[in-house]
Amino acid sequence: MVAVEPEYCHQCGEKLVVQTIHGRERKVCPACGHVHFRNAVPAADVIVRDETDVLLMEPFGRDAWELPGGHPEIEEEPVDAATRELAEETGVEAKPADLRLLSVVHSTHRELHYNMITYVVDYEETEGSVIPGEEARDVKFWPLERIFSSPAETRQIDRRVLQLSFDR
Ligand SMILES: [Zn+2]
To answer: How far does the centroid of ligand 1 lie from the alpha carbon of residue 26, in Å?
Structure first.
């Protein structure tokens, strides 16, 4: 992830100063003039549906279960990032062509802005086995009823896209 507040110019190494440019305070290099724009970070997530159950992963170091997904690499299409992260985190393998685009939802987390691109795939269209990857403490299918009846266990943004997917 690149959403780090820069202190020094990545072009020439000079310490940055703050100026108002295009109506917004931005970090600018006093030596070479480079403006360090910062942008919302894209994320790509997958809803794997099995009837009314949804595949969730429990990441290490966090207190909520999440949809599998992550940030696209610099040369990677979001749909490829979604299938790569799905396999890495849950062991479930999907073909990018089988993923259907559901939504793009904006979210904030620790004062950073994200655009979460969510895809849907049916579990029967996937291969592999449900096995926690390196980043996951656990992985399992959750009944939709449980997700909505105990909201403290999941992320609000995931419940938002699940409502869209299941038309609730
Ligand atoms: Zn510079």
So the answer is: 14
